[in-house]
Amino acid sequence: MLYGILTSVAVLSIATAAAAQTCGQIHRIEAGETLGQIAQERLGSRSAYRAIYDLNRDLIGPNPNLIEIGMALSLPCGAAETAPASSAGATDWEVLVSPASLAKRQENQPAQIVDLRSAKNAAAGVIPGALSVPYSRWRGTKDNPGRPPTDAELSTLIGEIGLRLDQPIVLIHTKADPFDMGRAAYVYWLLKSVGASRIAILEGGHAAWTKAERPVADTPATPEPYEITLTMTDQWYASLGEVEDIGAGHTRGHLLDGRPSGMFSRRNDQGQSVPSTLPGAASMPAPGFYRLMGAEMPELEMLTTLKAQSVSWEAQPVVTFCNTGELGALTWFYASELTGIENVKLYPESTKGWLAAGLDLVVPVIQ
Predict the structure, then answer these.
(1) Which of 215, 192, 233, 163 is nearest to 95 (CA)?
(2) 66: closest CA among 357, 310, 354?
(3) Which of 30, 36, 129, 251 shows a CA-CA span of 20 to 30 A to 7?
(4) What does the alpha-carbon distance between residue 203 and residue 293 come to, in Å, rounded to a whole number?
C-alpha cells in the first residue's frame, strides 16, 4: 500500500537576484529531492523546474521526474527571465493567489474573475468585476455529479459567460475549506483541459477577500457572450476504463483516494469494514491538510512523492479521485499545478460514477 508523503514549501515568485546568485552553479541531487523542490530552493519558484530540466535533459533523459541521487545538475542563468510557461503558468503567474496579490494584479493587468458561489451568495456582493457562474453549472447529474460536461456543454457555458480562455482567469470559492477549495480545483481542471493557460484560485476564497477588507461590488459583472467550440483533452482525465485496468492490475499505475481516512475506510455499526473505495486504491492521508486550508496560510503542504516505492510517473500514472470529484481535484491540483508532476490524472466521476456504472466498491487493504 502506498501512502502520500507531505512536504511544506512556500509559494513564491521567482526572484531575479536568486537566479543571478545561482547562475552557473551545480546542484548534486540528494535522496527525496524533485526538480520542483530544487527549483524552489535554488531559484525561488517551482515553476522554474522546466528550465533546470531543459538544461540537463541529456543527463536526466526523457522523463523529468526520473532523477537519480548523485546527479550533478547545472543550474540555469537568468532562469527568472527565460523559464517558459508551464502548467503552472508563466513566471509572473501564480496558480494560488492571496487577496493582496489579486488586488494588486487587478490594478495593473486585470484578470477575469469567476465567482463559483451560489447565485444567492453572489447577489449579496462579489469581488468587483466578477462573473457569477455557480459551481452547479459545471457539474454532472445527481447520480454522477463528477461527470465532466460534454464538449458542447462546456462550449455553450463558456461562450454564454463570455470567458476568454486566452486571458488570465481567477476562480473564487466561498471559504477556506478543503471541500470548497476542491470545487474551485475541479473547475480549474476543466478550464485547463479546454485550453486555458493562466488560471488561479483565490487563497481562502471570498471570505478571505472580505476579511482583508477588500472592496465588494453590489452586483456581478454582465457577461459578454460569444461563440466558441471547445474540445476537452484527456491529458489530465482518467477514464473509467483506465481506472478499471489499473485497479485490476492490467496496467501499471496508482489510484489515490483523496478523502479523509474515515471516508476511505468505513465501518458499519458492528465495527465491520464495509466496501468504500475503488479496487487497488491507496489512501492519501493529509494530517495537516485541513489545518492548512485557512485564509492566512503561510505555506502549503504539497504532494511531492509517493512513499514506499519509487514511482515512474510516465510508466505508472497516478490517478486521483474521491467521492464526487472535489477532493480528488484538489489532490490533482496540489500534485500537478503546485508540485509540477506532469503525469497526474483525475478520475472526476470518482466512487459515485463507479457505482453509477454498475461496478462495486471494495474494502480497502490497509498495510
Answers:
(1) 192
(2) 310
(3) 251
(4) 8
- Model's pTM, two decimal places? 0.72
Question: pLDDT for 217-276, tens place per residue?
Answer: 999 999 999 999 999 999 999 999 999 999 999 988 889 888 887 888 888 888 888 999
The C-alpha cell 496579490 sits at 101
Q: What whole-number distance in Å separates Cα of residue 50 and Cα of residue 64?
A: 8
**Burial label, 157 (beta-carbon count in 10 A; 0-12, 13-18, 19+):** middle
185/264 Cα distance (integer angstroms): 20
The two beta strands, 318-321 and 344-346, are parallel
Residue type, 229: T
The span from the CA of 46 to the CA of 36, in Å, is: 5
Give the E-state strand segments of 75-222 in sequence order: 96-97, 112-115, 131-132, 169-172, 199-202
Helices (H) and strands (E) in the chain, counts: 14, 15
For the record, the C-alpha cell of 28 comes out as 548534486
- What does the DSSP 8-state code read for residue 96? E
Task: Quote the DSSP letter at residue 20.
Answer: H
Q: Residue 139's closest CA among 362, 356, 349, 355?
A: 349
Helix (H) or strand (E) holding 319: strand 318-321
